[in-house]
Specification:
This protein is α+β, with helices and mostly antiparallel strands. The protein has a domain at about 5-70 and about 100-120. It is built from 4 helices and 2 strands. β1 and β2 (about 85-95) form a beta hairpin. α1 (about 5-15) crosses α3 (about 50-65), α2 crosses α3 and α3 packs antiparallel against α4. Pfam families: DnaT_2. It comes from Pseudomonas rustica. InterPro entries: DnaT_2.
Length: about 130
């Protein structure tokens, strides 16, 4: 796992009161794990850009609130009805679309926006000739 931010970095960016002292180390660890999982490209690890540090700080705050790796269980209730002749059947079910970024906490969305230039699409690949 890469280390993009430290507790000292987050304290410098957001002030020392961003989280209780007992949660800071774990929150920064989770933020670094999240950043590492994004497979950011083109970042000089000896001189981390300020945008990446800011994104890491935002992720650390979300992690300190217990929302970075939280499962989303809210969705919409949907119903479908089918009629064939005199027979009618209906089905009611819950639906959640986790592929949309709106399902993410606002701090995570902000961090992903800050990191856009270093992120690569999971559906893209390099072609060398």
């Amino acid at each position: 796992m890469a280390t993009y931010i430290t507790v000292a970095d987050v304290d410098a960016i957001l002030g020392a009161s961003w989280a209780p002292d007992d949660k800071k180390a774990r929150s920064v660890l989770q933020a670094n794990a999240y950043l590492t999982s994004l497979n950011l490209v083109g970042i000089d690890m000896d001189a981390i850009p300020e945008e990446v540090k800011q994104a890491g700080a935002e992720l650390a705050v979300v992690a300190s609130e217990g929302k970075l790796y939280q499962q989303h269980t809210e969705g919409s209730l949907e119903a479908k009805t089918v009629k064939a002749g005199s027979v009618t059947t209906s089905k009611t079910f819950a639906s959640i679309d986790t592929s949309k970024s709106t399902a993410l906490p606002d701090g995570v969305q902000f961090a992903l926006g800050l990191l856009a230039q270093w992120r690569t699409s999971g559906f893209s690949f390099n072609v060398y000739r």
